[in-house]
Amino acid sequence: MIVALGLPPPVLREMDEFLEQGVEMNSQLNYLTLDGKKKLEAELEYLTTTARKELAERLHFAIKQGDLSENADYSKAKEDQAFLEGRIKTIEATLRNLVIVEEVRNEETADGAVRIGSTVKVVEEGFEDAPEVYWLVGPTEADPKQGKISYESPLGKGLIGKHVGDQVTVQAPMGAITFRIVNIE
Questions:
Q1: Which residue, 121, 125, 102, 135, is CA-closest to 163?
Q2: Which terminus of the chain is more exposed, N or C, with fewer CB under 10 A?
Q3: Greater model confidence, 16 or 130
Q4: With bands split at pLDDT 50, 70 and 90, how would you rate the model's confidence at 96?
Q5: Residues 85, 153 within the same domain
């Protein structure tokens, strides 16, 4: 069982299952919520069906125009095809090594510490009347504007394993910023 990441037991069990299924140790596990997984699956479905078909039609039209060496439509379609196939491969790799992260309630963690899946309310030093709430997710789903931060981000790394009342100092471009954990949900 993997314990170094300090993850809750359900996530650890899923990681063990992946390893038993032959996922290589050096493969990066991808942490996604169920919603994030569904969005990636929908994007993959669109890319492998509709987008590929549209691109094939564009390529066919460009090829019919003749001389490919000076055909801008053909060159653009080939570039788009490379991007499309790269995105498909990226999504497939992400889904292949997937660990579903559920929202973790503080009472569900043995020690009440911040984990991947936790929702954490923090206040920045000097701005105590302006709390911020973040949900720790995997880097694929991170969207700070929506309150989702990656556990790999500087703040995410600092929060993992911490408890209510703990302080976390993060290096930002303008200097160090200190946050105090007010609540873990």
A1: 121
A2: N
A3: 130
A4: very high
A5: no
What is the Cα–Cα distance from 141 to 56, expressed in whole angstroms?
A: 30
Distance CA 104, CA 87 (A): 30
Token pair in block for residue 63: 């090829």
Q: For the chain, how many structural domains are there in total?
A: 2
Domain that residue 171 falls in: 106-184
> What CATH number should be reported for the domain holding residue 110?
3.10.50.30
The pLDDT tens digits for 137-156 are 988 889 999 999 999 999 99
Q: What is the CATH number of the domain that holds 48?
A: 1.10.287.180
* Residue 67 pLDDT class (50, 70, 90 cuts): confident
